[in-house]
Design goal:
The protein has 155 residues and is mainly alpha-helical. 50% of the residues lie in helices and 9% in strands.
Length: 155
């Protein structure tokens, strides 16, 4: 073991020279925005934003016969289980609509709700697929930027 310097040790302080400093890595400002790496990063970000937008549209809800219907995953599962119960037992059940109002529904109504929710979700996913293809086909940043993630969801 070496001994620590004495408390009276005089430290020599020098300024680093260019030879002492390793070369800097490229900064974001130095990376060409035309580079494939940058473009692929932007593409990945755009696809992530697209998936978030699709999910928001998917769970945004739909309407059946004037009844607002939630389309989040929990509500879709509830529609399926309610359908099973109505098929087995018949009659009507109390249902809380997407806007919070109570309605009585029968098997025909739950079948219509199930079909509308299925159609809504598939339409939203079809839009996402189309937009994802546009993102993947883009060859330049301008083409990538031109892909509209937020329009065209309501058909």
């Amino acid at each position: 073991l070496t001994q620590p310097p004495s408390p009276h040790h005089a430290w020599e302080v020098t300024q680093p020279t260019a030879e002492d400093t390793p070369p800097l890595q490229a900064t974001a400002a130095q990376v060409s925005i035309d580079s494939p790496e940058y473009r692929e990063g932007q593409r990945t970000e755009k696809l992530s934003q697209l998936a978030e937008t699709r999910y928001d549209k998917e769970v945004d809800g739909t309407e059946v016969g004037g009844i607002p219907v939630k389309t989040d995953r929990e509500s879709v599962a509830l529609i399926t289980s309610t359908k099973s119960g109505l098929e087995a037992m018949g009659g009507t059940v109390d249902w809380k609509s997407g806007d919070g109002h109570w309605v009585s529904i029968d098997i025909q109504t739950i079948n219509a709700m199930e079909a509308a929710v299925f159609t809504h979700i598939q339409r939203v996913r079809a839009v996402e697929r189309e937009k994802a293809a546009q993102v993947l086909e883009a060859q330049t940043l301008a083409e990538l930027d031109a892909v509209d993630l937020y329009g065209g969801w309501d058909a």
